[in-house]
Structure prediction request, 168 residues.
Amino acid sequence: MAKGKKQEGNGSGIMRFIFYLALSFLIPYSSGILIEKAVIKSWEDFGFTPYQARQWWESGIRSRSVAISWRSKWFEPVEAAAWRTMKIPPDEAKEWKDGGFSLADAMEWRRYAFAPTLASGWRKVEFSLGDAIGWRKHSFEPEEAAKWRGSGVSPMTAAEERRGGRVP
Prediction:
């Protein structure tokens, strides 16, 4: 052993290992906390509380601008996430919701190429989706179809009579 050098024992090596192991955890953890606080602060600047920001994140919406666009249409995080999953944009989702449609209803009406306002028109005159499809197939608008239905005729008969110049 060289003069002036102290021999390290096993205890010193283990302590150094534990120290580095702790640093390998604490540095990324601390960085993550600092980053999260900075991101939350940027959300707070747009009126979100830390709790609300985390709700949006837990719903899969991590973009502040996306959260803002949904929140401005009065959607909660979980509800917005469901509409987003179905690829319905916030403006259209609001139209469906304002028309009294659930997400499932909206998807069904959309499947048959009904826009929210058109679907609402059919619902307003108390037509089911199936009935609306049948009447629309013969180029009827909701109000006219309701009059013909009130006369007790089918969509096909109404279309024939309309071509003949008859009105309900």
Residues 109 and 129 are 7 Å apart (CA to CA). Residues 22-85 form one domain. DSSP finds ten helices and no strands in the chain.
